[in-house]
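Bumping with the actual sequence this time:
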Amino acid sequence: MNTSTHWVQTSDQQRLCVKTWGQAGQPALVLIHGYPDHQAVWEPIIACLSENYFIVSYDVRGAGESSVPEKIRDYRLSRLAQDLQEIADTVLPGQAFHLAAHDWGSIQAWEAVTSPEFKGRILSYTTLSGPCLDHAAFWMRKQFKQNRTNFLKQLSKSWYIAAFQLPWLAPAVWNCFNPQRWNKIVSHLEHRHDLPLNENIVKDGKYGVNLYRANFLPRLTRPRQRFAMCPVQAIVLQYDNFVGPDLVDEIQVWAEDFSRVELAANHWAILSQPEKVAHYLDQFIQQKAIQANKIGREKS
């Protein structure tokens, strides 16, 4: 695959490792990884799509080869959306792009997808296992009043969020892991034993905790009304141990153009079933491109 590495200096002086794959003339697709991963987690999917797309992936701040901010507030959603903006302006100047994200990458991507500044810049958004925190807060409040079973089910999946708020214990726990030990956990969840190692797992886990500490309490206690500025597809992972499929139901309230597909997979489907994820992603992008072209012809 044709790939290049770029270094993007953000406006708050962080250094982000960005990679591009494929030919620049193809439709642009930006991929954002989750926690505790870095951009290499997308490579099985990139292998499926790089012939037809110009793909941009990057290590979010604190992960992979990117620099580590000193302050928790430097991981706020607004700052993460600005990282996406600055990366796109550097690598895709003046160009609109499709967006796909997993886990915490999806959570942070929602901030951009629901920001008016990105209207027309993001052509479509595919989300896997990462709700908008504002939407999740509204959903949890509804379930608490109407369906306590659903509320408690999601609460039981999210136990680790409370643990991540502890100032020193959560980061320190990652010192007990190594690539092989973490691989066993993911392989067990995904029922596959040929998954790639995350050689950077200690850093990715330790510093990524700040994503939770900077954002969960403010957003869950003071949710905002956030409407999607582009078509949204949710790839629902039926056996996800961390994000209940029911959370996806809330998206249709906030996305005018919304579709969902279901995949019999656990949380790391981008590793265990990359061909299927890539298929759904490509299918959605092509469908939205056809619709956009049709609308354009009708207007002209």
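The tokens above came from a reply further down the thread. The chain has twelve helices and eight strands.
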